[in-house]
Structures are given as structure tokens and as C-alpha cells.
């Protein structure tokens, strides 16, 4: 099974999750990436230090999420709902693979996410069609105003559904002290252990 962890810059949370899962459960293939990552940056030193205290090595350089990585992955586990929403909008063709880590191991909010997936897909189709038909005829400001009006119903539905979601975010330690990174690592480790338990029960890791 191929698992891709995703965070913002791919220097803290997602490489920590990648390192933990590789260490605890080497039966699966694991990579990590960032929604807004710059390729080639080193993992945070604090992340390296707190992992080392757990006996986990982390030799990692950042990479941005790409269609090729999404194609490779069997499941894509985000650190926050915001990361998931960003990928659902930018890469809707893979959205059946998208979960936050906490969501995936708890399996809650499935109905709400099912509704959101449909609305996101409809939103992007409607938006792309309007831009294709009118993008060259209208200046940027008028185009944006027309899109806001055209998509008002979908945007309102998205806001209502998003407000009903449980908070499934892993805390971001970026810029924090070593103790902040330790707290995030504990949060990650708790959910990685649940992930391993789920993979072992389902047998997906061995397919």
C-alpha cells in the first residue's frame, strides 16, 4: 500500500508522520509532500530532534504535491482540513483518496465529506465552464464578480457544511519551541498507532 502524508511546507508534520510510520510499520510504502512546499528544503531541526528521542531517524527534503505523487498514492492523508480542501479544489480527480489523518482513523463525518466532495466537483465544473466561455470577453474584475454571483449557492452550501465538520487538524509546530514539537509528535504518534491498527485489521497493507 502506498501512503502519502501532506502538510503545508513538508518540513514538519508530514515528514514526521512519514518517519514514524516507516519506523513503526515498514510493511507500507510511505512518502510525504506539501501543498505549498518548496522542493529541496531540509526537515526542521526540532522535528529531527524530537524524532531522535523516540529512536526514529528522519533524513528528508521537502517536495511539493504533484499529480504524479497523487497517482502513486493509494491514500492521501492530510494534516488539516484546509490541506484536504485545497487538494480537492486543485486536484479533484483524486479526491476519493483524500482524508485528514484523524478523519481516516476515526471514520467520522463521512456523510458530510461525501456531500462536500459532490459540491466541490460541481463547483469546479461550473467555474471552469464559465471561465472557458467568458474568460477572454471580460476583464478580470468583472469576471470575478460574475463568478461570485454565479457560484453563490455552492459557496454558501460549502460554508455551512464546513462549519459542521469536527476539527480534525494536527497542530502546526512551525516556528515553535522544542516542547511544541514534542506535543505535535505525541499527537501524530497517537494517530499513527491508530492508522497501523486499522491497516492491520483491514489487511490493506499487505495487498
UniProtKB/TrEMBL annotation:
Residues 1-198 form the Phosphotyrosine protein phosphatase I domain. The keyword Translocase does not apply. Residues 144-205 form a coiled coil. InterPro entries: LMW_PTPase, Ptyr_pPase, Ptyr_pPase_sf, Tyr_phospatase_low_mol_wt. The active site is at 7 (nucleophile), 13 (nucleophile). Gene3D superfamilies: 3.40.50.2300. SMART domains: LMWPc. Belongs to the low molecular weight phosphotyrosine protein phosphatase family. This is Low molecular weight protein arginine phosphatase. It comes from Cerasibacillus terrae.
